[in-house]
């Protein structure tokens, strides 16, 4: 997933090897992670795909089944991993993750503390952000969940960048070994205000903390606690609105204020135009229709950021 070892450097030209993890793309809402194994096969509604046919091909390759169906073999980036990972807990998605990494000012070489690990969606993106010389220390109170996360990080090749610990951060706080050495802290806890005093001790001067909470009452309690030792306290709610864009016949378009349309030449006219023909079009015009997706995700939670006060 990351350029950790030169031999395993991920690029659009790196070829798939036996034992690699690939993301099998059937369509935008149907993907899965598959470990390549010589002699194994993948069966789906498009037919049977032999893993042996994948080995030696670059990531992004379109491969065909015995029935003529096809899939794409994609590299396991953090963005795609977030879409295919096993949900042991509710996860953060790309809109929140990108905002968190930006506002926590995470760059290569940073040391980051996270609690709790959960399904590891954010942890995977944090690891890429701090690579190649930074590190993410993530904690979860649930031992089996932490063990499953370790397995996932091994599978995705991130184990050298992530250390998973089992610890009740709300009750015990972060380990003292990290005191005044951490660049950023992320909290995803039921009662994050209990962990804020410990997080403040871990941060370097001017370090940044983020707390994720699904309820505004949690945010209010967090902000009250942050005011003692933190400044520049801000809370955001990320709302992502996706659009469905497709071509449709003009005569079939209904009067709908939620739909934006742009008239296009018909397919037949476009074909004739490309051939230099000036013949009259015989079919009705088509349109590019754009409307909000019916299943667009709304509120996931509130992100509260704060910067540690410098008392020196």
Automatic annotation (TrEMBL):
Catalytic activity entry: adenosine(58) in tRNA + S-adenosyl-L-methionine = N(1)-methyladenosine(58) in tRNA + S-adenosyl-L-homocysteine + H(+)
GO biological process, one term: tRNA methylation
Span of domain tRNA (adenine(58)-N(1))-methyltransferase catalytic subunit TRM61 C-terminal: 69-307
Documented EC number(s): 2.1.1.220
Region annotation Disordered: where it falls in the sequence: 265-286
Amino-acid positions noted as binding S-adenosyl-L-methionine in the UniProt annotation, renumbered to this chain: 119-122, 140, 168, 188
Biased composition (Polar residues): 274-286
Cell compartment(s), UniProt: Nucleus
Sorted UniProt keywords: Methyltransferase, Nucleus, S-adenosyl-L-methionine, Transferase, tRNA processing
InterPro entries assigned: SAM-dependent_MTases_sf (IPR029063), TRM61_C (IPR049470), tRNA_MeTrfase_Gcd14 (IPR014816)
Enzyme class: transferase
Family under the similarity heading: Belongs to the class I-like SAM-binding methyltransferase superfamily. TRM61 family.
Protein name as annotated: tRNA (adenine(58)-N(1))-methyltransferase
